[in-house]
Amino acid sequence: MRAVKKAVLCFLCAVMLTGCGFAGTTYQEYVLSVMECVYHDDSDSYCALTNVSQEEAEKMHDQEVEVLSQRIQNYFGLDTELISDKIKGDYDALAEEILQKTSYFVKEVHKNQDGYEVILSIIPVNFWEDAEQDVKTYYETDFSERYAKIATPKAADRMEEVYAFQVLKQLEKHVNQMAYLPPVTYAFTIQNQYIYAQTWEEIDRLVLNWN
Description:
Distance between the termini: 23 Å
Structural class: alpha+beta
Mean pLDDT: 84
Strand content: 5-15%
Number of strands: 3
Strand order of the largest sheet: 1-2-3
Low-confidence stretches: 1-24
Helix content: 40-55%
Largest sheet: 3 strands, antiparallel
Oligomer: single chain
């Protein structure tokens, strides 16, 4: 039917950030508030620092959940046109749980000739490869044999739901006992009070350990 795929999902940058309205506030607080808003759905500090509405801040987190959920479904070869909204919602919930378990902190911030250099310490989540191996084992020892016995296209379509459910169960085991890679340091410069999309994509790649 399929091998486990590592399809690349075009990353939709979750934020277009401006630091307006927080004169006197450190960039350390600013960057941490952004990350807490996007990953941990804690937008109070970000809203206070930027005057962004709670509704707009929540959209940043919601988009991050959506992007991660879609990426997981792509990575593990799900046919999203054939699985139910219920299963898709379960993958959204899994993405939410992963985001809540992300870990990072701002080590230091200092002014340079281009703006402010921010140095992050990020502890990447580490579940992708182990989960992939478990999904491969399930596919090779169980699913492929059952799929080979299917007689009709309609029944084959229904098996997509079975596959999506079983993949979810494998993933939940790893997320419930989340492992982490050693901390990595990432430095970037804030210019004109913006964190630009390219910088945010790299932060996101490190935090979530994208391949």
